[in-house]
């Protein structure tokens, strides 16, 4: 049996049961780079946005600023974990974000 929830209902559920942010990056055959942001909770997963990062250096500072902005949009107090890539710039980003948001 499948249950379908409206996006508003899923977003409201984050206040009750928390959520997980998922972020991944990819490049197409023309080397255009995208960074995707999804949010998972027990009521469903939402694709929230995609950022064109083709002309950005994907260093730890850029990624940290991007993730920090996204956490603020979602409401960091509702986020229990962030799942990101294991590339070295993402590892540094993860450490910075943990220092900024100790509850993660």
SSE inventory with pairings:
Blueprint (H helix, E strand, L loop, with lengths): L6 H11 L1 E9 L5 E9 L2 E9 L7 H15 L4 E5 L4 H13 L4
Parallel strand pairs: 1-4
Antiparallel strand pairs: 1-2, 2-3
Helix pairs in contact: 2-3
Q: Which key terms come to mind for this protein?
A:
104 residues; alpha+beta; 4-stranded mixed beta sheet; 3 helices; 38% helix
Question: What does this protein look like?
Answer:
It contains 3 helices and 4 strands; from the N terminus they run H-E-E-E-H-E-H. It is α+β, with helices and mostly antiparallel strands. The protein has a domain at about 20-55. The chain has a 4-stranded mixed β-sheet with strand order 3-2-1-4.
Q: In a few lines, what is going on in this structure?
A:
With 104 residues, the protein is an alpha+beta fold.
* Class by SSE composition: alpha+beta
**Cα-to-Cα separation, first versus last residue:** 33 Å
Strand content: 25-35%
Rg, nearest Å? 14 Å
Output mean pLDDT: 88
Biggest sheet: strands, sense, closure? 4 strands, mixed
CA-based shape: globular
> Which strands sit side by side, in order, in the main sheet?
3-2-1-4
Topology, number of strands: 4
């Amino acid at each position: 049996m499948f249950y379908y929830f409206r996006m508003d209902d899923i977003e409201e559920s984050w206040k009750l049961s928390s959520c997980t942010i998922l972020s991944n990056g990819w490049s197409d055959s023309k080397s255009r780079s995208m960074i995707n942001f999804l949010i998972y909770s027990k009521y469903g997963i939402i694709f929230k946005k995609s950022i064109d990062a083709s002309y950005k250096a994907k260093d730890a500072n850029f990624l940290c600023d991007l993730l920090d902005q996204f956490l603020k949009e979602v409401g960091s107090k509702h986020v229990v974990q962030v799942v990101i890539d294991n590339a070295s710039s993402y590892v540094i980003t993860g450490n910075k974000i943990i220092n900024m948001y100790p509850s993660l």
